[in-house]
Design brief:
Blueprint: H1 2-38, H2 42-62, H3 64-70, H4 72-92, H5 96-124, H6 141-154
């Protein structure tokens, strides 16, 4: 039973990584059409193509914040809503600036999902034998450091 769960978790995480590669492939095939459609100069064209990657980096840095505050599951629902909004927004964008905004939002979703899916699945994992209820399963770096320092002070001196 446990091996089946690990397989399913691995599959879902792999699909999350697939999203980023899929976006890169799609935009690579459509970039010249986008440049012609919006009438972009070289700088605008470069920004249009790279803004999703910029959003991915920002989303990866900030993705743990809502996960820690709202919980992992609620954050994943918000990310799904962000994907939906980004898809509809880029498809229905009336001008280049709106198109950029929704591509950035899509990138934020990809970056945040890269962090939050791992948080969600690691948080669902079984605790190691002997771990108490205060042992953190996952979380932001600051929270892990806080727990580590607290647990270190609980241990007897050796």
């Amino acid at each position: 039973m446990r091996n089946k769960n690990v397989f399913i978790w691995s599959l879902v995480i792999a699909l999350g990584g697939f999203l980023f590669g899929f976006d890169t492939a799609v935009i690579s095939g459509a970039e010249q059409s986008i440049q012609k459609f919006w009438g972009l100069n070289t700088l605008q064209h470069g920004l249009t193509i790279s803004i999703a990657l910029i959003g991915t980096v920002i989303g990866a840095f900030l993705g743990a914040i809502p996960s820690d505050r709202l919980g992992r599951k609620k954050t994943l629902y918000l990310i799904a809503f962000l994907y939906l909004t980004s898809s509809l927004g880029t498809a229905l964008a009336g001008n280049w600036y709106i198109f950029l905004l929704f591509r950035l939002l899509g990138g934020l979703g990809v970056g945040a999902s890269a962090v939050c899916t791992f948080h969600y699945f690691l948080g669902s994992a079984h605790r190691p034998p002997g771990a108490n209820h205060d042992t953190p399963r996952t979380g932001s770096i600051g929270r892990r450091a806080e727990h580590s320092a607290r647990d270190h002070h609980r241990q007897p001196n050796r």
